[in-house]
């Protein structure tokens, strides 16, 4: 039986480049090589696409799961090795024209073997954040007519933009924390007026976030007015839209951070819930990937009623954003009342075997290699369904 060729796409220009390397290395190590042939495809921080046709040789390298970011070290991860030693190609979004052998066709290549290396049946875009999880790569793959894991252009872009996402959640009747959205040019021109508007609508503490970014990059917890300007300026480094959210729990209590994994296309299912107990005030980038001390509790210590509510809300959020394949849905729980608020969906969450999304499914009954297999099958199913669409009357 012919193996399915899976292009594992990783790296990218976002601030989550290193996280992507860890996720990709983990996927390449765990994937069922009796069923799939892996084609590693890297994108450098400068946006250059690189490949290495010797996937089998890469997969023999030693790789140890770690919370510490040694991801950029070619000796530490196979994905970093591809970025360091792969050959450079330019890839235009042109369908290959071969239904049996879909491929990303290199426009320019150093050696002819590059063309063969890019012939794939499906792409697993293990890209986090900007230029990977926001609909841009998905649009490229749509134009190239290649199956890919995860949400489409709309679901990916909606799942990245916290402002648009909240509007979709609101229309779906999901409970949200109070929030305000401010554009960077307006903040830069009318800082005093914007501050008054924020303080009129929200109470401290508040969280200030770039609308389009992940892994808690650029997010600040603001305890009082003296900290607001610095937090706004920090978020404005990363996006033109800034979202300011009311803190759950007030000044004395921290919100509980509950997470649920969703898997599927048109009939998605939700995993059991987990809980993040951050070592710091909230689960920021350092707490996620660098500092020790944060805990992942699976299952979360919540009632059956709360778990059922979170699972139902997770599926509604998934569908509201038109997600597909996978998403991790994050909630904030008021520590006093127990009320759940939808926080966000992550359409390509951290995907090492020790990340929350795979661990939630493992606890629910789907182990990591089987989860990878299921996601690939969902991608192929969705692409086959999309091929039924007619784009012209001729």
List the SSEs and their pairings.
Layout: E1 4-11, H1 17-30, E2 36-43, E3 49-51, H2 55-59, H3 78-85, E4 87-90, E5 108-109, H4 113-117, E6 122-126, H5 136-144, E7 147-148, H6 153-160, H7 162-171, E8 179-183, H8 184-189, H9 191-201, E9 206-210, E10 220-222, H10 228-236, E11 241-246, E12 256-264, E13 269-277, H11 285-289, E14 295-297, H12 304-320, E15 325-333, E16 340-346, H13 356-364, H14 368-386
Parallel strand pairs: 1-2, 1-6, 6-7
Antiparallel strand pairs: 2-3, 3-4, 4-5, 8-11, 9-10, 9-11, 12-13, 12-15, 13-14, 15-16
Distinct helical segment count: 14
Shape: globular
End-to-end separation? 36 Å
What share of the residues lie within helices?
25-40%
List low-pLDDT spans.
Answer: 53-71, 106-117
- Secondary-structure-based class equals alpha+beta
Rounded average pLDDT: 84
Strand order, sheet with most strands? 5-4-3-2-1-6-7
| Total strand segments | 16
Task: State the major sheet.
Answer: 7 strands, mixed
Strand content: 15-25%
Series of H and E elements: EHEEHHEEHEHEHHEHHEEHEEEHEHEEHH
Write down the Rg: 21 Å
Describe the protein in words:
- This protein has 394 residues and is of the alpha+beta class.
- It contains 14 helices and 16 strands.
- The strands form three sheets. A seven-stranded mixed beta sheet has the order 5-4-3-2-1-6-7, with helices on both faces. It has a five-stranded antiparallel beta sheet with strand order 14-13-12-15-16. Strands 8-11-9-10 form a four-stranded antiparallel beta sheet.
């Amino acid at each position: 039986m012919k193996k399915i060729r899976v292009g594992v796409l990783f790296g990218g220009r976002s601030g989550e480049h290193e996280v992507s390397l860890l996720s990709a290395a983990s996927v390449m190590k765990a994937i069922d090589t009796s069923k799939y042939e892996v084609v590693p495809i890297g994108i450098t921080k400068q946006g250059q696409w690189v490949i290495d046709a010797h996937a089998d040789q890469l997969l023999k390298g030693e790789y140890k799961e770690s919370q510490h970011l040694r991801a950029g070290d070619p000796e530490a991860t196979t994905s970093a090795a591809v970025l360091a030693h792969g050959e450079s190609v330019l890839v235009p979004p042109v369908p290959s024209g071969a239904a049996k052998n879909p491929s990303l066709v290199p426009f320019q290549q150093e050696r002819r073997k590059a063309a063969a290396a890019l012939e794939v049946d499906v792409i697993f875009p293990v890209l986090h954040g900007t230029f990977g999880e926001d609909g841009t790569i998905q649009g490229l793959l749509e134009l190239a007519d290649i199956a890919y894991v995860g949400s489409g252009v709309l679901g990916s872009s909606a799942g990245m933009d916290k402002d648009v996402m909240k509007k979709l959640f609101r229309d779906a009747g999901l409970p949200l924390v109070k929030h305000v959205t401010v554009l960077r040019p307006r903040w830069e021109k009318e800082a005093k007026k914007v501050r008054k508007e924020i303080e009129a609508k929200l109470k401290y503490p508040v969280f200030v976030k770039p609308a389009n970014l992940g892994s808690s990059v650029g997010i600040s917890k603001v305890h009082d007015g003296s900290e607001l300007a610095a937090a706004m300026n920090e978020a404005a480094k990363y996006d033109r839209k800034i979202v300011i959210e009311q803190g759950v729990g007030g000044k004395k209590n921290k919100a509980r951070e509950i997470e649920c994994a969703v898997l599927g296309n048109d009939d998605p299912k939700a995993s059991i819930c987990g809980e993040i107990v951050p070592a710091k005030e909230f689960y920021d980038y350092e707490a996620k990937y660098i500092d020790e001390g944060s805990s992942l509790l699976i299952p979360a210590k919540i009632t059956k009623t709360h778990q059922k509510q979170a699972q139902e809300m997770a599926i509604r959020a998934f569908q509201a954003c038109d997600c597909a394949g996978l998403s991790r849905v994050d909630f904030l729980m008021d520590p006093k009342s127990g009320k759940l608020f939808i926080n966000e969906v992550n359409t390509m969450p951290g995907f090492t075997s020790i990340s929350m999304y795979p661990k939630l499914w493992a606890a629910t009954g789907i182990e990591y290699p089987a989860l990878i297999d299921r996601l690939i099958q969902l991608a192929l199913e969705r692409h086959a369904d999309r091929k039924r669409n007619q784009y012209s009357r001729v």
